[in-house]
Amino acid sequence: MQSTNSEAAAPLGLLPKVERQRLHDTVVDHLREFIVEGVLAPGMKLNERELCERLGISRTPLREALKVLAAEGLIEISQNRGATVSKMTDAEIWETFEVMSGLEAFSGELAAQRITPAELAEIKALHYAMLACRAQNDLPGYYSRNQEIHNRINEAARNAVLRQTYMSINRRLQALRFRSNFHAQKWDSAVHDHEEMLKALETRDGKRLAEILRQHLLDKRDAVMQVGSES
Description:
- GO terms for molecular function: DNA binding; DNA-binding transcription factor activity.
- This is GntR family transcriptional regulator.
- Keywords: DNA-binding, Transcription, Transcription regulation.
- Pfam families: FCD, GntR.
- Helices cover 77% and strands 3% of the residues.
- The chain has helices at 5-36, 48-55, 59-71, 90-114, 117-135, 139-156, 160-179, 184-202, 206-230, and strands at residues 75-78, 82-85.
- A two-stranded antiparallel ribbon has the order 1-2.
- Strand 1 and strand 2 (82-85) form a beta hairpin.
- It is globular, with a radius of gyration of 21 Å.
- The termini are far apart.
């Protein structure tokens, strides 16, 4: 039986929107990753032509992605200067990490009460995958799993307001958190913290987990400030 024009057109009409959204999300993810890993360094002016060539896209999806990143505070867009990667002052770094340490601590306190066995098992699997990356000196792989562990703990807290605030502030700190592992000693210290986090989660010790997470973030802050003073 032959389809009518309206029946044939309906599903086809949806395809461009789906593909466009997928492209948009992919471009945003790639640019965010470039910023986190320092490929696009703080204060760097972004060359649209070079980015388009590197990503294999036109300027329209690139500019749409830049608007998203500007809303997240990762880049700054000026009519005269174009787009540049945001650069936080020392005071902003210090104060933002202080706030983030509190958000992480509260996430841990709630997660210890509310996490399910399945969620805990997923975090344990991520932890062991993270350790494997550390053994191979794979910082990007380590960092992605590290951040996913923090993310899962925040999700397990099951507090929508906390989640929204956490995501908004954490985006601004991701590049700095990545840099905090440049020194092997700091990296190994962070691994030890994660082992203690896992123990606290397993025993449902919310107070202990909150203490570990708070200090973990303050240590990250200190490591970032040290890297900044040496550069």
